[in-house]
């Protein structure tokens, strides 16, 4: 995608898009290839994979803790005496 392609889809200036793309390129999330006067921006799968791996750590962290919390809550509910309705 070129900067022009992106600008057409969003109500953002070319300058703002260029700044965002530069940051993404510096972070290894996109690559830029010049073809004539145009610069084609493409996603970099390896960069996205690194983000996925990083986020997976947090997903596993919270999933484990939330599962433990669920077990504790369910155990407390079972241990609580039942209330009789009036």
From TrEMBL:
InterPro entries found in the cross-reference section: ArsR-like_HTH (IPR011991), HTH_ArsR_DNA-bd_dom (IPR001845), WH-like_DNA-bd_sf (IPR036388), WH_DNA-bd_sf (IPR036390)
Q: Which GO terms describe its molecular function?
A: DNA-binding transcription factor activity
Top-level taxonomic group = Bacteria
Q: Which residues form the HTH arsR-type domain?
A: 1-73
| Listed PANTHER family | TRANSCRIPTIONAL REGULATORY PROTEIN
Question: Would you tell me the protein name for this molecule?
Answer: HTH arsR-type domain-containing protein
């Amino acid at each position: 995608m070129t900067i022009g392609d992106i600008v057409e889809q969003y109500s953002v200036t070319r300058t703002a898009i260029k700044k965002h793309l530069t940051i993404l390129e510096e972070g290894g999330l996109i690559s830029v290839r010049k073809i004539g006067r145009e610069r084609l921006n493409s996603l970099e799968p390896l960069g996205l994979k690194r983000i996925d791996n990083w986020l997976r750590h947090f997903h596993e962290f919270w999933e484990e803790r939330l599962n433990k919390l669920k077990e504790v809550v369910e155990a407390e509910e079972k241990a609580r005496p039942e209330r009789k309705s009036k």
